[in-house]
Amino acid sequence: MTGEHPALELRGLAKSFDGKVAVAGVDLDVPAGSFYGLLGPNGAGKTTTLSMAVGLLRPDAGGARVLGQDVWADPVTAKQMLGVLPDGVRLFDRLSGGELLAYHGLLRGMDPAVVDKRSAELLDVLALADAGRTMVVDYSAGMKKKIGLACALLHGPRLLVLDEPFEAVDPVSAALIRDILQRYVAGGGTVIFSSHVMEVVQRLCSHVAILAGGTIKRVGTLEQVRGDRSLEDVFVEVVGGRTATGEELAWLSR
Amino acid sequence: MAVPVTAPAEQARQVSARHFVRLKLRVMANNFRGQGWRVALFLVGSLIGLWFAVGAFFGLAAPGLIGDDKYALMIAAFAGGLTVLGWLLLPLVFFGVDETLDPARFALLPLSRRTLVTGLFAAALVSVPAIAVLLALSGLVVTAGVFGGWSAALVSAVGVVCGLLLCVAGARAVTSAFASMLRSRRVRDLAAVLLAVVAALLGPLQIAGLAAIQDTNWDRLGGLATVIGWTPLGAPWTAGIDVAQGRAWAAPVKLLITVATIVALLAWWSRSLESAMVGAATAGPARARPRLTGGVVAQLFPRAAGWLRRDRFGALVAREARYWWRDARRRANLITIAVVGLFVPVMVNFGGFTFDSEQGFSAAGNSSPVLVSLSMLFVGLLAAVTLANQFGFDGSAYAANVVAGVPGRLELRARITAFSLYVLPMLAVVAVVIAIVIGEPTWIGFMAGALVATYGAGLAVNSFVSVLGAYSLPETSNPFAMNSGAGVVKGMLTLLAMVATGALATPMVLAAALLGDAWLWLGLPLGVAYGVGAALLGAYLAGDVLDRRQPELLALVTPRR
Known about the structure:
The structure holds 2 protein chains of 2 kinds.
Chain A: E1 8-17, E2 20-30, E3 35-39, H1 46-54, E4 61-66, E5 69-70, H2 75-80, E6 82-85, H3 97-107, H4 112-125, H5 141-153, E7 159-163, H6 171-186, E8 190-195, H7 198-204, E9 207-212, E10 215-221, H8 222-226, H9 231-239
Parallel strand pairs in A: 3-8, 3-9, 6-7, 7-8
Antiparallel strand pairs in A: 1-2, 1-4, 4-5, 9-10
Helix pairs in contact in A: 3-4, 3-5
Chain B: H1 17-32, H2 36-66, H3 72-95, E1 97-98, H4 113-125, H5 128-137, H6 139-183, H7 188-215, H8 218-229, H9 235-244, H10 250-279, H11 296-300, H12 312-326, H13 328-349, H14 369-385, H15 390-394, H16 399-404, H17 408-437, H18 444-468, E2 481-482, H19 486-514, H20 518-548, H21 550-557
Parallel strand pairs in B: 1-2
Helix pairs in contact in B: 1-4, 2-5, 2-6, 2-19, 3-6, 3-8, 3-9, 4-10, 5-6, 6-7, 6-9, 6-10, 7-13, 9-10, 12-13, 12-17, 13-14, 13-17, 14-18, 14-19, 17-18, 17-20, 18-19, 18-20
């Protein structure tokens, strides 16, 4: 089955809010076993696209399949194979880290003994064991990302969908998250994550898609997209950035 | 004078209250954009408010219109005093305050505290309830004008406006102070006790009031009205009447009392505002938890939920049960149920208390099974209506359940179970305490039956309301805060849910009226069966709806940023 179907398959996903188009028809194939980076400037529609892909936001048109299972027609089967770290979404933050893991594990129908064992390991590896009894609301931003990632990993999903996993994370935690994700991919899992940090994408990803203005502008393996230039040059060119000429904002220097 | 190097090129323009008012109107308008049903609910709510305001206007203008000034002072003092009390207490118990302009958002702006307080105060005045109250109490101006001519009318108008300022300032100061108390985990129990005491004071006051009315001793009431007129509760409202009745010297003194009170309230508000702006992010140090036994699963389950199986249902119940205690907003609701649930039945059923000089303070025995059932019905539906926006409490965290694909029926059943872990014991206490207090211990059975039946029917109704009519709550730590516009919407939905629940529960009252003694025995089993059946059926049917609109529900409860 894994051989036949891409890990994630998006077809013509579109969404507009109050008449304002956020995503205008996104097609994307994420091959199984790939480490996929979804790049885009702020407001490009990354979060909207990923939310529609995992069943958090109903698309106006189009569909999403996880390993061949339709997310919207057969959500139960599809969601079992998914691990999600949504961005800007609060966790149930009045639980402690351990309680939150237990909640997610049981919610996924796991055996309590397995939940205990895996949670202890995850808390240990992510250096959260000391904070296991502090409520998540009192965690720092980086710790929240880590506990969110732990919740997404707990049930051993086949596909991880991570929205901005490296946002507001200090370098030490970022390195830890990178290691874990690389091990997960090496073990046969698939990761797609959104970001606008070029170095991380360049270092980690096998495949890249650049999203801007609600549509995919470039897609392919890292080498195909990058060519012989740096990823940042390609990105700025595709998105259409501008550089300051020095005339404006003159009052900034006195 | 040397100009410092860092002086801005142009003078910063003065920020005035006008900016805050315009900001509030703009935020309100933006909240309505593209949400037709919100606009509709807002309009309907406003019209109902206007309707009541016009009715009250004529009620208060009645002495003037009839031309009889015997009761003018009394009406002004009591109606005005009740209005002020209502503004102070109702936000705490039921409605919350409109935090369209969250003070924490202004923390980084270079505004003096005085500017901020006057600005937020001015913005708070722009609201439907404030306008309705102004309209209603303007009836006093008519009365004063008829008896005292233009000068009295003018003084009365000034008094009414000052009175409105007093109401709004009081509401803000009290909720802000109470919120900062609830925010700190250490004093939350103290806050609960305080609220209980405040509510407890309502009981005796009402009893005394009812007894006084029954005595129809108008002279005594007149004396009371005069006294109230000299307190901040009545001063602004009675100033005009005083002028009309030839006590012109009293008017400036009363207005002075009012203004001094407003200034004091604003000063109090400004102090607690500071702590709201600075301390909003931190909720005090986390308590060290001594127990370290067992794995994470054992940690999740509170002791009261220890009997649950360690599966999806168990996890949902355990998490909800923890949240009802740990989330300040939810805890405030639980406290409200406990306090109101005890005191309203006491007040209703003690209406028959008399102050007969020979019997002293005793029950006149005019409490009937129907009256008791009605008061139980009220408590039951008040408890259940707490769940009307149960998903709004979660906010965007609800995404976890959507991603995990929790079936709707399981979700609703678990939420009902967790809430009932707290509420059912409370209801049992209410039934026992009220039965003993009114001296009818044999009534415990059917009282508990009526409570559970209403509560169960209410759970069914509110399961639907919570799935279809959810709205987002602002992500502040103020348990009384809510988005503007949502205020009226919330009121309408709550009212609808309560009416529907009441309709569903009327069989219990009818049975109490018709079945007589048999109901003493049948009440409990039938009531419990009715309640449990209704709740399960409601969760079953609403769960189906929830399955179809999980993403939509998530979008509704996610605060817009």
